[in-house]
Specification:
This protein is mainly β. It is built from one helix and 20 strands. Helix content is 14%, strand content 38%. The strands form two sheets. Strands 1, 2, 4, 6, 8, 9, 11, 12, 14, 15, 17 and 18 form a twelve-stranded parallel sheet that branches.
Length: 181
């Protein structure tokens, strides 16, 4: 069983056909959409704000998901919102940001508070997206701090959906293995 923990009486909510690895930890106000997956050693804390993960998205090994609390200076804080068909690579840090649909976040990237990543974007491995930045739809972004590199070509755009589908298929294998125990 996955480690799903309540925080102040609020428990993580899972959609249909979701896979959560038993070594992942999800705490508090988190919703995971249908057919999504959360892989080994992911830590997600929806304690001082909420986390929403869309449909057919995957959060890969060792990633950390967190939020920013509400305050007098920031009455809404910064929740973490992840759209549909998003691939979050290994060891990624997502903190109080908003990711649209069909996004690939490369391994060990960091995306900070109040960032908005529009639909159909690739963020290169190791990139750092500083607070408040908006990443425009249809581009590759790389670097630390991140900068717009070039428009995505048609093969890269198609890969965004294919990457999500690869993890939908993989989590189905894992769900079969879990159900046979």
């Amino acid at each position: 069983m996955a480690d799903l923990r309540s925080y102040q009486g609020v428990e993580p909510q899972l959609g249909e056909r979701v896979y959560i690895d038993r070594s992942a930890v999800l705490v508090g106000n988190i919703e995971v959409g249908d057919e999504s997956s959360v892989w080994p050693q992911v830590a997600a804390r929806g304690d001082v704000n909420f986390i929403r993960i869309g449909k057919r998205s995957n959060i890969q090994d060792g990633s950390i998901l967190h939020v920013t609390r509400r305050s007098a200076q920031n009455p809404h804080g910064h929740p973490l919102i992840i759209g549909d068909e998003v691939t979050v690579g290994h060891n990624v840090m997502l903190h109080g940001c908003t990711l649209g649909n069909r996004i690939l976040v490369g391994m060990s990237a960091t995306i900070m508070d109040d960032v908005v990543v529009e639909d159909d974007v690739i963020i290169g491995a190791g990139s750092v997206v500083p607070p408040g930045k908006v990443l425009e739809s249809g581009y590759l972004y790389v670097g630390s701090p991140v900068s717009q590199k070039r428009k995505l070509n048609s093969a890269e755009q198609a890969f965004l959906t294919q990457s999500a589908q690869n993890y939908v298929d993989l989590k189905e294998d894992y769900l079969l293995d879990v159900s046979s125990i």
